[in-house]
Amino acid sequence: MALVNLTADNFNDEVQKAPIAILDFWAPWCGPCKSFAPIFEKVAQAHPDIVFGKVNTEEEQALAGHFQIRSIPTVMIIKEGIVVFNQAGMLPEEALEDIISQVKDLDMDMVREEIAKEQANQENPQG
After folding, report:
1. What is the mean pLDDT of residues 104-123?
2. Which of 6, 22, 33, 55 is catalytic?
3. Which residues 6+ apart lie within 8 Å of 25 measured at CB?
């Protein structure tokens, strides 16, 4: 799948239909964002089964706010509707490839179970 420019209008359609979506939150004035863009694009070409979405934080402030983006670039990975990776800063190509491998291997039933446990602990704190 090619790179997709994500907006508030197409975000849900593009991200929800994808088993894995990798998001690059960036801005046109950001030097590290410009340096990361070719890496993101190269890795996107190697993984046609994944949605690679770019979110321009200047134009899509509501999306950036929703995901609490505090610095850019920020890479976020959503698998089956759950954010499983969120890191500010540039990633080298090898690191991004490694993270993608880990996300592909991630057992989402286990992740959902952990989320449920965490929510239960918050609702019924011990002590």
Report:
1. 90
2. 33
3. 55, 57, 64, 67, 69, 72, 73, 74, 75, 76
Q: Which residues are bridge partners to 82 per DSSP?
A: 79
C-alpha 2/C-alpha 59 separation (Å) is 21
Catalytic annotation present for 33 = yes
Give the whole-angstrom CA distance, residue 70 versus residue 124.
Answer: 31
Which one of the listed residues 1, 15, 30, 84 is annotated catalytic? 30
115 a catalytic residue:
no
Percentage of residues in the chain with pLDDT exceeding 70?
97
Q: Distances from the Cα of 5 to the Cαs of 14, 67, 113, in angstroms?
A: 10, 16, 32
**Rounded average pLDDT over 24-30:** 97
Q: Which residue has the tokens 């200047």?
A: 58
- 27 and 33 in contact (C-beta within 8 Å)? yes
Topology classification of domain 3-123: Glutaredoxin (3.40.30)
